[in-house]
Amino acid sequence: MARSTAVAGLADGRLVFGCDYNPEQWHPEVWVEDVRLMKEAGVNLVAVNIFGWAELEPTPGAYSFDRLDAVLDLLAEQGIGVNLGTGTSSTPAWLTTLHPEVLPQAADGTRRWPGGRQAWCPSSPVYREHALRLVEQVATRYGGHPALRIWHVSNELGCHNALCYCEVSADAFRAWLRTRYGTLDELNNAWGTAFWSQRYSAWDQILPPRLTLSATNPTQTLDYQRFSSDELLAHYTAEEAILRRLSAAPVTTNFMVSAHIRNQDYWSWAPHMDLIANDHYLDHRLDSPTSELAFAADASRGLAQGAPWLLMEHSTGAVNWQPRNIAKIPGEMLRNSLAHLARGADGLCFFQWRASLQGSEKFHSAMLPHAGIDSQNWRDVLELGSSLHRLAEVAGTRVQAEVALVFSWEAWWAHDQESHPSSDVRYLDQVHAAYRALWDAGITVNVVAPGADLTAYRLVVVPGLYLVRDTDAAALAAYVAGGGHALVTFFSGIVDENERVRPGGYPGAFRDLLGIRSEEFFPLHPRDSLTLSNGGTATLWSEALRLEGAEAVLTYDGGHLAGGPAVTRHGFGEGRAWYTGTVLDPATLKGLLTTAAAEAGVVLPDVQEGLEVIVRSGNGRTYVFLINHSSEDRKYRVAGTELMTAEASDNAVVVPAGAVRVVRTPAMTADFPKNDGPVGDRKDAHRVSN
To answer: How many CB atoms lie within 10 A of CB 15?
Structure first.
């Protein structure tokens, strides 16, 4: 598990309010004004030297620290802590000119050139030698600096260069495979190389999964994902070792738990962090950006094993890298920020402090925008800083949840490979659909890894776990047999860790648990749908299920599967297991999950449309976060002190449209606080029944 450094310890026991700062882009006169405004806003942690390599080492072996010295001293004088980057994220021009072999290679065999960022191969010994030399210099100089609060290794490792296919990477991959399998016979068996005459007779015959004329070997591709994640982690630990030798400050790096980054298995990375830090940006390419934000926050908390975590980057407004970079409307930045806080973050930081005037990120929003302090953006920043000051006592408390959702980067890699029954069915879509249904129902979720201890949960949701190890499948079965409840969605349990199909019928590892058997998948065209017995619809996927102990909860009303089970329920030991054999419409999925949660004994809040309710508790107190995403005022029945306005509440709090309220109560009551306001436009879910 992640180490136990307290996030609030980075800001003297307060909630962290911070930013990325790139002083190398500005004249020293601007630094003084920046630090003054940081103090005015309440900023207490600043990330610097994230992209400082060329500034610190302008020519090979010649170091210049004067400007960074001045910045750190200035911050220290004003009592602002520093999240100090090692500066190794992007290579200086002299390194790639002298050593072009460090540049990464794409799957088609072409080199990727400098001019952007992360122009380096994770396996390159030349890159690592130069990077670690810089880390040694930075750690020696600043390891005891009074401003230093935490070390920031590199930056967003693997955002652009996670998969390199060069010859250096090929050699490193072979070494990784030797460690994993020991012998070629074991590798050939694991990879199924009897197929298409792929058998290897020597290690040097093995290559990365470069582009081929046909489909590649699925297990080779999966192992390359595993190797690449491990290779970047090895770079992290190499920098980490130097920092720990030369400094007592905690060490971490910024994860990217989000909808578009998938190349690191953060379950394996988390134990190496002193605290979990995540970068997250609202993604307007998704159907529900706000629920995806909640999922990413819950997943970050899961990586922290429930402990408070740090939001190291998010945005005050628009980003610069989406097809349409949409600015946030008034109140949205506060809602987004406090949603992360509600879900376990003890610190909120932004990229970046002052909006850049040049470079590819010049239209990315910042705390101090191009418009300056006479702007709504700046006023919103001041409001958030004041809010965090009022909410300081929340630091150190934890989120409580009765429902777990199993999530796996490894299963994501395997699920979305080519040559599968349907290219329209994607792993993250299943995860987001299940999570969104729970979010809409007001059910707080802990995100857990396959094989995690499930004894604390009443219901466990397992979406699309295509790849699952025998031990992890057995852990879920034991949990249900002992009285737990689980809901598994289609295309789960199909293959083992080597991408080998489990024979005997689908859903493979979960057949006995679910009391069903499927002989054939019947994917649907996106334009087609099937009607369900409750009046809902099924899309994208169906399968011919045979009941082997389970009962049908929903059936198909038409087509060749008419009368066949679409959703099943099975008593297994002392517990119960549900299965969805298709993509359910959102209302039906919400109704199903709500029913499953109720049968499992989960306390269900009565939540209004658009009102997000999350509870943090600790030290004998409970904090009820009420985030109103709707355009109407909401009234919520809860007694205590409302911290945003410092007003006492005898029995109910009004949450204005688009606003946030946080109510402190003496202790968690037996019943979840109830919604007592107008329903507004609430839409009832399709009921799930026999």
So the answer is: 26
Catalytic machinery residues: 156, 313
State the Cα–Cα distance between residues 656 and 628, nearest whole angstrom. 7
What architecture does CATH give domain 7-176+231-396? Alpha-Beta Barrel (3.20)
Distance of CA 390 to the CA centre of its chain: 28
- Would you list the DSSP string of 595-646? HHHHHHTPPPP---TTEEEEEEEETTEEEEEEEE-SSS-EEEE--EEETTTT
Architecture of domain 403-600: 3-Layer(aba) Sandwich (3.40)
Architecture of domain 611-675: Sandwich (2.60)
Say if CB 300 and CB 594 are below 8 A apart.
Answer: no
Taking only the tens place, the pLDDT of each residue in 68-112 is 999 999 999 999 999 999 999 999 999 999 999 999 999 999 999
| The model's pTM | 0.95
Give the span between the Cα atoms of 77 and 438, in whole angstroms.
Answer: 47
Cβ proximity of 528 and 545 under 8 Å? no
- Residue pair 80/185 in contact (Cβ under 8 Å)? The answer is no
- What separation in angstroms does the CA of 584 have from each of 7, 213, 493, 511, 541? 40, 36, 19, 21, 9
**What residues does each domain of the chain span?**
7-176+231-396, 403-600, 611-675
Instruction: Yes or no: say if 367 and 337 are a contact pair by the CB < 8 Å rule.
Output: no
Chain segment 17-52, per-residue pLDDT in tens: 999 999 999 999 999 999 999 999 999 999 999 999
